[in-house]
Amino acid sequence: MKVSLLQTNGPKAWSWMTTKNHLGSIWQTKPQVASKITSRMLSTAYGNTLDTLLDTIDALYLDTDDDYTWQLIGSSERNIPLVAAYTDATLSTLITAADVNIGQGGTDVYLVFPEMWFSDVNVIVGEKNELYPLRVLEDPVATGTNWVYRCQVWGATALASGIPGEELTSGKLFSKDYSPVSDTLSIKGGGMTHTAPIGFRNGFSQIRMQYTQPGNMIDRKFGSVFETVDPSGKMQKFAVWQDYNDWQFNYQFAQEKNRLLYYGRSGRDANGKFTSIDRSGHVIRAGAGIREQQESSNVYTYNTFDIKLLTSILTDLAEGKLAMDERKFVVRTGERGAILINEAIMRETVGWTPLQDDTAIKSVSSMLHSNARGYGFQFTEYMAPNNIHVKIEVDPMYSDPVRNKVKAPMNGDYNGGLAESYRMDILDIGTIAGEPNLRKVYAKNTPDITAYIAGLRDPFNPQGGAPKQISSPKDGYEVHKFATCSAMLKDPTRVASLIPSILTS
Fold this sequence. Notes:
The protein is α+β, with helices and mostly antiparallel strands. The chain folds into 2 domains: about 35-75 and about 200-350 and about 375-505, phage-related protein like fold (Alpha-Beta Complex), CATH 3.90.1690; about 80-180. The protein has 7 helices and 28 strands. Strands 4, 5, 6, 7, 8, 9, 10 and 11 form an 8-stranded antiparallel β-sheet that branches. It starts with 19 loop residues before the first helix and ends in a 5-residue tail after the last strand.
């Protein structure tokens, strides 16, 4: 791969064991090295990842690594879709959209619903709730899998005019309003409603990596001190290959763990059984990552992005669910998505006087002019109406060109680059009854495991010497890492995903 006219060699890639031949073909020691910092062309600065965010939230530690469950209490307020409506108790005369004056003067109306949700005495309302309420006259009667309610139009105005048939067609939504009774010797009230808790289940996943180090690579020195920049931007210096290899091994293992928590897919089928078999002959237990847990609700696709779309989705997440002082969200996206959001806010704010200030213009140094100026700014937070506050964070995983391959077009909606970089995930990282909505999950007393198999030479006895017990006849050693982890999104309804349509079609 050629990335510059100044490039003297292409990047070489390999897996598994590193030998002297590999080392010699990569790091030439004779030419003078002008810059010793290795450029990470494909994975620069994996700093602000979701793993970093989750590290700021208290993890959940469970007693074992068995499957774990949690529940959310659903609302006792619900809409029930109408199956059909009739004018007679035998259910022979179906009400259609063309009918008028249904229930005028107090004649009975028979509503069929799929559930026994309403009760005698309830006043229920449909979609035009102020205009056409109905009172349930007796408890429902079962008919097949449905329930029939004998009702009467409620309220003097509605009684006089009746209800248009189009308000009583299949699919219309109805809810309970209240339960009116007389003020003298009333004998019965409306019934209660309950919603069973929503149950969730997830499991732990295990990952494992290993490498083999030949004995003659132990303490193998570089031609000069080798320097590289780690994902946090900190300089790392290595004098011997073994130290650099160990650092890379731990870094790559951490990245696999990060991707597992984010992108992991459950291996469980519809019957709750795991279907994949390890080479050991045992099943691979794999829990769902955060992305898969997000897919259960609030997934939107888009071509054209604007701030009204974002405001609408944020309002859906907050309206009727979160108090005014709890409406704080994080949008995690790629670099292209952050630009898209900035451009959308710019379009929305064109002409607003408060934006035309001097803070966007500042003095800079330049050979071009003694009084040089710089101009620019970027919106990284958005305060939507009704106290909704969202922060925009760029996650390098969205812009990773190795994992993400689909390109975005250059048109009015996208400006090239990777399609995944335009994805936006809106996360509510607040709490539910004092518990984080999003967090890592671990089993107690199961830390990441690092182990090695000693051979003829190993890092603790690199030159041999006195007789010792070995676990392998190889002139070298093996290093193994193993981890058990999971992630829990407690309430998926409090997050949303905006996905470019080119990723879904």
